[in-house]
Automatic annotation (TrEMBL):
It comes from the Bacteria. Keywords: Cell membrane, Membrane, Transmembrane, Transmembrane helix. The keyword Transmembrane applies. GO terms for cellular component: plasma membrane. It comes from Deinococcus puniceus. The keyword Transferase does not apply. The chain crosses the membrane at residues 21-42, 62-82, 120-141, 162-182, 202-221, 260-285, 305-326, 356-375, 396-418, 424-441. InterPro entries: MFS, MFS_trans_sf. Its main location: membrane. GO terms for molecular function: transmembrane transporter activity. It holds the Pfam family MFS_1. It is found in: Cell membrane. It is a multi-pass membrane protein. This is MFS transporter.
Amino acid sequence: MPPASPVSPAPLDPNGGWRTFLWLWSSQALSVLGSGLSGFAFNIYLTQTRFPLESQKPELAAALSLTALGWALAAIVGAPLAGALADRLDRRRMMLTCDLLNALLSAGAVALVLSSSPPIWLFVLFTAALGLVGTFHGSAFDTSYSSLVSRERLPRANGMMQTLWSLSGLLSPALAALLIGLPALARSGNGPNWLAGLQDGVPLAFALDGLSFAVAALVVWRLRIPSPVRVDLAEGAANKPSLWADMRVGWTFILARRPLLHLLLTFASVNLLTSGVGVLHPLLVKFTLAPDLAARGLTVETGLATLWTAMSAGGLAGGLLISAWGGLKWRRVLGVLVPMVLAGAAQALSGIAGTVVFTAAAIAFFGIMTPIMNAHSQSIWQAQVPSELQGRVFSVRRLIAQFTVPVGTAISGVLAARYAPGSVLLWAGLAMTAVSALQLLNPVMRRVEDPLGASGSAVRV
């Protein structure tokens, strides 16, 4: 293991810190794209290779659900510990270790998909390990670049981070499909024997994912990333907090600062109302937009791909916009709530648009608003939470904001079974608009950017 980075309580100089962030962002972009490739390829492996028959639909549904659940539960359960360790350990070494572990996991995935019918529980363990390592990496990464980037540039940096996921959503399916088809092309065109001998290109996708993590590790190894000094853990300090005490600090901090709690609960409500789109959009295409698709000579698959592409393209456009603009320099809460209101209206419109073109336009607008509100929210949290607390606070923030996602998904499935999916999208969007608009009138929310301690009691840690 390389030596730890020098610790520092202050960000690097503005230019050097920004250059370091750009290198860090580039390495993350590569690994996110690699993970998108392997994620898409894994779904293809389950649906086309492992459970290809119509009679295997229950087994396929169970495999998809269990692997997704394994990832989510591991990420949620591991978040408090990951956050506490991100505030205790050298963050550069933590990211480097996670990148190397992810590379090893990708190598293990290559071996799994090359073997004959491995048990599904091995894939559940694999996705759980990915979720756990990803949580530790995310805790170290999210708390690192606020030490590199000046407060004025935080919205721009966060906008750049938002573009990663949308760009991966646009590029990964096409690139993964190309990789998956390479062995067949090799067999028909006298390609290399090792390539022609593969059933499909799924192992190639996992191998490239592992390579992307290895490159990311190499970049991180070469960077100087400061970690904050914690006086309470210094050698000779009295009453050093335990790891368990550190895991409770995030809750104490957030509960003592009401404006941040209100912001967090607003996002939890929005996640409740929007997390069901993964269930509702396929049903909307199949049952509501089917006549329009048929009139245009399009298939259901094409219609669904159009909506997903619209969401990713909108997200990419919004991320590029906030990156170029830099976001609001003050009253950033307006950069959260106004796009949130507009996104709710767009979701409502997507439920009643009636045609695939107008539905895709509404979804694309929703996608544009999402990185703008997320980037401003992240900037508020990074500015309000001291660097030495961010790991512990952000892990609790993630738990509270995202625990409503599985709840919202389940509720959407129940409602969609009884009502038209467009109606569910309409009312969920209107509720999101109302919740967000009411927060514009909330006096507590307007104090969310006040100096620490001005709107809530100080937290002793």
